[in-house]
Amino acid sequence: MTGPIDEPPTGPRASPRRSRTQVAVTGEHQMGLREVRPAVFFDRDGTLIRDVGYIKEPDLVELVPDAASVVRAFNYALWAAVIVTNQSGIARGLLTEQDYLAVKARVDDLFAERGAYIEAHYHCPHHPDFTGPCECRKPGTHLYELAAAEHALGLAESVWIGDRWRDVAPSLAFGGRGILVPAERTPKDEIARSKEHGIAVVGSLLDAVHRVLHV
Q1: What is the dihedral of CA 184, 188, 194, 198, to 10 degrees?
Q2: CATH number of the domain residue 174 falls in
Q3: Which residues are marked as active site?
Q4: Which domain does 182 fall in, by range?
Q5: How many independent structural domains does the chain possess?
Q6: 142-189: per-residue pLDDT in tens?
Q7: Structure pTM?
Q8: What are the b/e assignments for 76-109, b being 16+ CB within 10 Å?
Q9: What is the enclosing helix (H) or strand (E) of 130?
Q10: 38-86 pLDDT, tens digit each
Q11: Is residue 181 part of a domain?
Q12: Which of 31, 135, 127, 43 is nearest to 85 (CA)?
C-alpha cells in the first residue's frame, strides 16, 4: 500500500520542483515558443469530494481522504490543479448555477484551509435528454481545450484523474495519461474498459500521485 506524501511547502507559490515546457505556437499573428505547464484534471464528485448525489448545499461538501495532500503535491510540483465536472443536475432542474457556484466556493475554501489550491473549475451544466447535445459534457474535449487556452497548459503532458471512464477517456484524445481511481459507484465494465485502453487503475488518490510525481 502506498505511504503518505512527505509534506512540501504549501500554496500555489511554493518553491518550484518542475520546469515548464516550451511548445511551438503558430498562428496568423505569432510564431514561436510558448511556455506551458502540465495540468492534473480532476473529476470532482466521487474523486475529490464525497459523491452524495446532486449536491446543492455547501454544508454537504466533504473532501475524500488525502484529497488535500494530493492537490498540495501537484501544487508544489507546479502542475495546475483543475477540476472538470459534469453537473447535469442543472439541466434536470435539481440545482441552479448559483447552487453550483456556492458548492464550488466551499470546495475551494476546504482546500485552502488545508494549504491546497485549485487553480480553475470548469463544468458542463447540460444533459442530452434535457438540453440536447453539447460540446462540453465529458468525455468531450471542449472544456480541456478551453482550460489549456486560458491557463497555458500542455495537454499532452497532463494527467486525468477520476472515478469514471468519462473522466479519464479524454486523456486518450490528447496523448496524456489517464488514471482511474474506482469508487463505490464505479461500474466494473468501466474499470475493464480503462485497462483495455491502457489507462492505469489504482486504489487511491495517493497511489495516483505517487505514480505521477514519484513522491
Answers
A1: 110
A2: 3.40.50.1000
A3: 43, 45
A4: 36-213
A5: 1
A6: 999 999 999 999 999 999 999 999 999 999 999 999 999 999 999 999
A7: 0.86
A8: bbbbbbbbbbbbbbbbeeebeeebbebbbebbee
A9: helix 128-131
A10: 999 999 999 999 999 999 999 999 999 999 999 999 999 999 999 999 9
A11: yes
A12: 43
